Q: What sequence folds into this?
DNA sequence: GTGTTGCAGTAAATCGGTTTACTTATCGTT
DNA sequence: AACGATAAGTAAACCGATTTACTGCAACAC
C-alpha cells in the first residue's frame, strides 16, 4: 500500500494525500481531508520512511555510537554504557525519533555510515579528543558528545566534573584516615575523563601531603575480568595499601572480587571506592562506596541539546558538567586509631 | 556528493557507477572500474542508504523490540534485556546490518512503524502469545521471537527450557532440605516464560510431596524496587519460609535487599535462588545461586535464524530451547539436620 | 558473408514520497 | 464589469539510488 494507491482510492492526487498526511490544512478542504484520512485508516497505511527521508533529507533517525573495549566488543562490557543507552533510548523515543545503535572499535569509521543513513543527529559516548576533529569534519549534523574532553573544539559535550570526582575520591579516602593509596584505572595518558579523574586524585593527594607515585597505579581495562586480574595482582603484589580507588565501578567490582579470591576482605583488610554509582553498588556486600553520577541527568541534558539543535537547525557549543558527590556506603572503612 | 556527480567526474553513466559499487564485474571493464573506484575513494563517497533501500526494498536495518515494564520505561529496568540487546547488537553488526532499537509498551503498536521503515528483519523480546498473531499478520518480514510461548503459531522462537528451569529451581531447594518454599514472581497467568517456570516449579513440589499453595506466591514486577518491596513484605509477613525461589535474578536481588533491610540474613535465615544467572550474581555477597541461561547462545541462535531467513528470503518455523542448569553459589544453604 | 554470442556501457523507468508551479473556481472590491 | 486574492487541488519535477531494456561492436562459428 503506497501513496499512489491511497490517492486512487480517494479519487485525489498524490499531492493531496501528502498534504493530508503532513497536516497542510490550508491546501485541503475539510471534506477531502476526512475522506482521505478515512481511507488511510482503513488501509492501515503508513508512509514509507525511506522515500520521505530521501526528499526531505531528514530521517528521524538518531545514531548512538558506543566505542567498545576489550575483546568482547559489546557495549555491556561496561554496564555504564548500557545505562546511558537505556536512558537515551527513552528520550529519543519520547521525541518521536528512532535510535540506531552501533558499537565501534574506532568511532571515526562510523561517520561516513551515519551520513549515508541521513541520520538527523548522533550521540557519541566517550570519544577521545583527537577523534573529535575528524568526526566533526566528516559530517555536519548535530552531534552531542558524552564524556569527552576537547577544549577548543566547537562541540556540545555533556559530562560530569571528572576532576572533582577524582579529587573527591581521594579526599574521601584520606578523610577516613587512609594514606597508603592504590589507584586502579584504565590508561591515564589520553585526554579524557580518566585523565581528569586521575589529575583530581593526584592533586588531592598532594594537597594532603600524601605521596602518590606512579608505582601505585594499576592499569586495567574497563571490564570485569580485567579488573579481577588486577585485584589478584594487588593481593599478591605485597604493596602495603589500606585503600584502593577505582576509576569506574565495574573495575571496583572486579578488584573486590579479585581481592576476595585471595582471601582479602573488603573493607576490613583494605578499603575500596568506586566511580559511577551503578545500581549494582547496592547489590553487593559490602555495598560499594562510589563517586556518584546521574545517568538520567546526563541523558536528559544530552537529548535536550541534540533536539534543540535538530529542531532549530543550528549548531550550539556547550560543555555542561554535572556536579557530583560521593555516595557513602560500606566498602570504605575508617582507619581510626590504628597505625 | 551523489552518484550523479561521481558519474560526471568519471565520465560514465550513473548505471556504470552503480555497477561498480555493487560489484557487477561482468558489466564493467577493469579499466573503467578502477577509474570509478579511484574517484569514489577520493571523494569519500558513500551511497545514500535511503535511496538504495527505496528501490531495493531492503534496508539492512534490523528492528529490536523490547517491551518495557514498570514505569521507568527503559530497557534497563531488567538488566536481562540489556544483556540480550548487547549480544544481538554484536551479531547484527557482524553481519553488516544496522540495529534499530525501540522499547514499547504494547509491541503491536510498533509493527506498522517497522514496515514503514522497510526493516529487513526484527527481534521481539519477551512477547506474549496473544500478541503474536497481530504481529505476524501486520508484517511479513522475517522475525525471530525470543522467550515467547506460542505453540501452533508458525514462528521462530529462541528460548530456554523454562519448565525445566522452574522444575530445577524447586528440585534444587528441595534437595537442600527445604520444604517451606515461597515463590516471588511476576504474573503467572499469561502464557509465557514465567508461567512455564511456575508450572515446572509447581510440579517439582508436587512430585516431592511438598504442598505448594497459591498463598506462597508473592507477586512482583520484574524490577528491582518492586522486588525490594516484596522482600520486606515477606520479612514482615510472618510466613515461615526457609527458602525463596525468584523467577528472575533482578527480582532475587531486590528480595534479598528487602530481607536484609529487615535484618534477615541470606542464606542463614532464609535461602534464595534466582533465575537468569546475570553476571551480577557473582558480585553480591552471598553470591546468588541461580538457574543459568546463556545470553550469548540465545543471541547467536536467534541471529543465525534471522539472517538465514533474510538471506534465503524464506520463512522458517522453529522453537529452540537452551538446555539449562543450576549454578550453585552461596545464597542457598543446606538444611541438614535442623527441622 | 551471415548469424550468434558476449562484452561494455547507456538512457530511461522506477521506487514512494514531497514540493513547486500552475490552474480553476469563487468571492469580495471598487 | 474588471481585478485581485484566496481556496482547493493537480501535474510534473525531484530526491539518489537500482534495474531493465537496449545499442554498438568485436569475436567466433559455420
A:
Amino acid at each position: 500500500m503506497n501513496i499512489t494507491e491511497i490517492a486512487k482510492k480517494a479519487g485525489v492526487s498524490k499531492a493531496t494525500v501528502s498534504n493530508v498526511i503532513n497536516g497542510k490544512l490550508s491546501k485541503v478542504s475539510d471534506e477531502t481531508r476526512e475522506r482521505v484520512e478515512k481511507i488511510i485508516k482503513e488501509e492501515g497505511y503508513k508512509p514509507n520512511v525511506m522515500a520521505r527521508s530521501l526528499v526531505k533529507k531528514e530521517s528521524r533517525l538518531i545514531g548512538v555510537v558506543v566505542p567498545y573495549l576489550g575483546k568482547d566488543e559489546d557495549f555491556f562490557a561496561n554496564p555504564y554504557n548500557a545505562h546511558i543507552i537505556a536512558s537515551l533510548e527513552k528520550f529519543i523515543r519520547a521525541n518521536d525519533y528512532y535510535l540506531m545503535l552501533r558499537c565501534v572499535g574506532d568511532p571515526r569509521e562510523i561517520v561516513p555510515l551515519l551520513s549515508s543513513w541521513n541520520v538527523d543527529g548522533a550521540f557519541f559516548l566517550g570519544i577521545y579528543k583527537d577523534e573529535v576533529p575528524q568526526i566533526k569534519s566528516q559530517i555536519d549534523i548535530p552531534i552531542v558528545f558524552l564524556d569527552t574532553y576537547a577544549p577548543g573544539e566547537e562541540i556540545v559535550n555533556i559530562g560530569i566534573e571528572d576532576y572533582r570526582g577524582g579529587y573527591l575520591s581521594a579526599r574521601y579516602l584520606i578523610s577516613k584516615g587512609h594514606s597508603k593509596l592504590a589507584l586502579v584505572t584504565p590508561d591515564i595518558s589520553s585526554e579524557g575523563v580518566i585523565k581528569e579523574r586521575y589529575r583530581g586524585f593526584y592533586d588531592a593527594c598532594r594537597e594532603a601531603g600524601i605521596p602518590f607515585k606512579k608505582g601505585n597505579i594499576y592499569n586495567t581495562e574497563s571490564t570485569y575480568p580485567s579488573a579481577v586480574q588486577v585485584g589478584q595482582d594487588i593481593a599478591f603484589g605485597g604493596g602495603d595499601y589500606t585503600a584502593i580507588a577505582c576509576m569506574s565501578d565495574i573495575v571496583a567490582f572486579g578488584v573486590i572480587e579479585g581481592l576476595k579470591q585471595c582471601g582479602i576482605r573488603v573493607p576490613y583488610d583494605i578499603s575500596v571506592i568506586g566511580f559511577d554509582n551503578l545500581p549494582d553498588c547496592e547489590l553487593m556486600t559490602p555495598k560499594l562506596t562510589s563517586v556518584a553520577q546521574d545517568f538520567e541527568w546526563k541523558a536528559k541534558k544530552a537529548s535536550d541539546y541534540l533536539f534543540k539543535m535538530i529542531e532549530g537547525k543550528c549548531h550550539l557549543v556547550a560543555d555542561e558538567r554535572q556536579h557530583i558527590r560521593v555516595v557513602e556506603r560500606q566498602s570504605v572503612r575508617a582507619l581510626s586509631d590504628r597505625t
About this structure: The CA atoms of residues 69 and 137 of chain A lie 25 Å apart.
